[in-house]
Amino acid sequence: MIPAIIRDDYAGLELYCIAYRLLGDPHDLVRKRYGWMLKCLSKTDRAGVEAYLAAHCREMPRVALRYALEKFDTDTKKKLMAL
Q1: Local structure of 52: helix, strand or coil
Q2: 33-65 tens-digit pLDDT
Q3: How do the domains of the chain map onto residue ranges?
Q4: Rounded CA separation 59/57 (Å)
Q5: 46-56 and 15-22 are packed helices; what angle lies between their axes, rounded to 10 degrees?
Q6: CA-to-CA distance for 76 and 42, rounded, in angstroms?
Q7: Is 36 exposed, middle or buried (0-12, 13-18, 19+ CB in 10 A)?
Q8: Distance in angstroms (rounded) separating the CA atoms of residues 37 and 39
Q9: Which of 14, 46, 57, 63 has the greatest number of CB atoms lying within 10 Å of its CB?
């Protein structure tokens, strides 16, 4: 999915549904990967990723949240980490 997001060729993929399904996965590498997916997606759909993170930041594993926030500005990072 990440190469498709980078090429902006992800039409038809339900990326937020995929991220939601992976939300409770216990495997650390899966958590890192879907956080990275959200980070890449934030380059093209910043508002959508921010809304997703605001809605799910309390239940997201910290590692996924930190990966997803890498491309956001400092104020947004602080705001979302404080929720």
Answers
A1: helix
A2: 999 999 999 999 999 999 999 999 999 999 999
A3: 2-82
A4: 6
A5: 30
A6: 12
A7: middle
A8: 5
A9: 57
pTM listed for this prediction: 0.89
Q: Which residue has the tokens 């939300």?
A: 23
The contacts of residue 63 (CB under 8 Å, 6+ apart) are 28, 31, 32, 35
Report in angstroms the alpha-carbon separations of 56 from 4, 8, 10, 21, 22. 24, 24, 22, 12, 12
The secondary structure element, H or E, covering residue 56 is helix 46-56
Write out the two tokens for 29.
């590498």
